[in-house]
Protein 1
Amino acid sequence: MTVESVLTRARELGITLTLNGDRIRYSPKSVPPDFLDELRQYKAQVIERLQRTRCCRACVCDAYDRRTEPNCPACQSNTCATCEGCIRASLLWRESEACAVYAATPLPDLLSRLKVGITWLTERYEASFADPDTFDADVFGRWLAEWDYAETALRGIHGYGGCIFDDCRCPDDAPIRCSMCAKEGG
């Protein structure tokens, strides 16, 4: 078990974890006892992750009232003046109805796809210098666009706020960075 699996299980159980100082608050108050045992075992790591993880909370209004200043802590998108939810996340939720693949993909699987995607993109990017005649910019562009879409879905649909890599830093040689590392300059 890892801190990621504790957080994933919380999401699967519909449990919201928040911090109040150095204490973890959970809602609803009624949670399975074995989950509480896991939470206690990984308390320090969960607190550390919650302290550095920011996530989108989608706007739930039918007709949102867009603020002029972007202020979503996770994606820097505009938020709704009425509910203070992220408009970009709301749009992704609505789009996810048509693109159920990301909504139905478990978080660990989506993270794995993104990691594999960075590896593939890095290999193709490096190969483009070695043999530019065989580099297919269209294929690379489609993969890059799909990777970006999956990463956006990770944030908006799954509410994930950290780096996609376990050590919380994208590879230095990657031609792209996840949005959290890009924001932090990592």
Note: The radius of gyration is 18 Å.
Protein 2
Amino acid sequence: MSERDLTIIPGGKDRASELADGKARHRSLARSGEDFVTRLNLGDAKNRFVAMLADDARDTNAVNAAVARYEAFEAAQGEPSTIGLALERHRSSFDDYQFGATVLEFDARRGYGFVRLDNGMPDALIRSRLLRSKGLRVFPTNARVVCAIAETMRGPVVTDVYELDLSTAIDPVHLPRIGEPRTTLVEGWKPAMLHTMNWRRGEGKIRLTNGSEILVSVATFNRCGIAYADPGHAFDVLVGRSEKGLVVVQVRLPSAEDLQ
């Protein structure tokens, strides 16, 4: 796969206005190939691969060429192939294709999440080790991504991320607080760092600049779109009071810190 720099588009009112004006560019199926691809049964692995090849097609001839390319690929196998294994062996045949997608969810405790592809293919798995390799500590719900996809026996998997657009991400305040205690906000944003994290138990400690340590749950990280965190990582936090004492209510990367 050819190397490409990662682009991160921050959130904010200016970017939101740009999206509203229709100026944002989101890569998706080419217009000329849309009708062709929407008629495919994407539950069939062969058709999903054809859809991937047709993604960049600019005219009917290009779509037909994509189909012919698949047929030649299948014929080269010498027998009806298990498409997932075959594509794993021939990943170079489609790694250069890029796909627009929307982040559905990411579970930092389990180390994976899912994105919904624009072209109607099944949701694609994305693993934390890929985000770590790209330096992406945030991967919030409803953010937009441009990525590379590989077809496997278990379905599509994200193999690279080229662009992350945070302007469409949902504010954590508006997401359900699943697995988090009820709290009353104590004070505004405070600088802090992750002191410890027990991923198996799903909780850890955040240390404020005054030295005090406050409980933080992985559920809070997930809601706030934190893809991974290591001891020593800096964050800004909101602190609340629950029945068990002070807890972190919301967490974000430091405003002055580069998103990577």
Note: Helices lie at 13-20, 31-38, 45-54, 60-76, 83-89, 128-134, 218-223.
Protein 3
Amino acid sequence: MGAGDRVEYLWREDERDKPKSIPAHDYIDKTLDMIKENMDDETVFPSKKNVPFPKNFNKIVKDIFKKILRIYIHILYNHFEVVRKLGFEAHVNSSLKHFVVFGLVHKVIPKKELDPLEAWMKTNFTNISAQYQYENLKKK
């Protein structure tokens, strides 16, 4: 799956596997399956009181956010004309803004993953606080 000609996102089944190129629809399906599996797993997302989250919880959440962000970026680079023609541009932009701001505030989006969004963020972020956080991420 890619973001135009700039970026290719590879898929890895687990940490031991070599990352491989797969079509976008497979990347998206696998991402959604992975998210559902994690959300349904009581050892990852406990639903009962006083049950601790696993030690690798932050890593799991960051991986989920990274993959969702990659899907957004793929849509922006490869399918945005369709989004625009369907009249969904404002909805997609608003959803992505909220997603990015949440990810920045809670530090669950790896900063290198935002590079393909740089021009989009400069155009779409009128919120000084979000833009400030993004600029500070770039400095670190």
Note: The helical segments are 24-40, 57-78, 80-85, 89-105, 118-124, 128-139.
Protein 4
Amino acid sequence: MRRGLFNFATASLLFLAMVIAAIWVRSLFVCDQIVTSGVARDGAGESQWMRAYISSRGFLLVRRDDQRYQVYDVSQPIAPSRVTSGDTSSEYRRTEPSLIRGDRLLGFGWQRQVIQVPSDNAAITLTIRLMIVPLWVLIVPLLPLPLLWIARHRRRSRAGYCPHCGYDLRATPDRCPECGRITAEVR
């Protein structure tokens, strides 16, 4: 039972590592995206959110945008400290590509930007969060168990040991006394 569970876990992790490796190679040639979005309402206003998972150029980009639309009382002017002006499209274009090109440490990157755009009686606050992770880093934690399985399998397959249970067969080379299997030399 324990060996079967170990073999299943090893095969699952190896399969997952191979899938991530295939996505890594594919991301060098094709940009794939998964995008989800939604709307949330509360007492202070309306909030829209968007999540994007992008694989491109060997990296996984996780992007989270939160746009909050907040209506103020028309009789009171908007305080300058609450809202600063800024064009959302030009601010976004100016910051995101720089992070993708070179503002990273060992391939990892993180950026958070808040843009506030005022109007007559409302303010739109756009919060952009971007995280970049190299895809090969996701493979590394999956490999120790398959490498351990390979090392155990090689140790068992050495001459003079049972290939099924690893028992030393020097005393009984024709049959394993531990599991009862007939060795390949007798067959």
Note: Residues 2-139 form one domain.
